[in-house]
Structure prediction request, 232 residues.
Amino acid sequence: MRLNKYLAQSGVASRRESDRLIQDGTVTVNGQVIIDPAYQVQETDVVTFDGKVLKPQESTVVYMLNKPKNVITTARDEFGRRTVLDLIPSNRRLFPIGRLDKDTTGLILITDNGELANYLMHPKNRISRFYEAEIEGQLSPQEIAKIKKGIFIGDGEFGRGEVVKQITRKTRSNITLRLRQGKKREVRRMFYSLSKKVYSLHRFKYGTISLGNLQPGQWRGLTQKEINLLTK
Prediction:
């Protein structure tokens, strides 16, 4: 098994993040620092990270959390701010699947399985994410078409999505969006490119998993059936 996959299945991080950790020299195999993510781990090898011996998990846990505003989507924060992991008591080594910025609320998935996280985040798998946004004014048919075709959002990137619904009341509109790429702050950057002020942004569905009646700060574990459906 490749070393990056070994870390991912041991619940250290996603495959991509495991690559970085290995290349930073934080992983040892039989007492020797290994910086090659493709190193083939043998059954007799002893792999350690952060001073702890790793062992691939035999079972996977996935939690869904309704992230409140001003909570950081990361495993730890150097400034001591509250993170999504502070809201879920667990003895497992957990990490969030993707990110929501601190001002965005709603559904975030948290797991100990790096392979699952890598699958759900990889753009080629086109996993749907659904958002509700309240914006100033409304989107014209031309702007809706731009979002679908792809709109430049800076840093050499294009944001794309599908406007599923738009309801306008007075000077504001509620927009339902479906995205399949998951780029950093993609929704906010698209609206910024269209000169639309965003009053609130909320994710209510990720793949096959919907937030349901979970209140801000509440969480629950996914059933095995729900976990299986995520990868189909």
Remarks:
- The helical segments are 3-9, 15-23, 114-121, 141-149, 186-193, 224-230.
- The chain is about 20% helix and 30% strand.
- The CA atoms of residues 10 and 55 lie 5 Å apart.
- The radius of gyration is 19 Å.
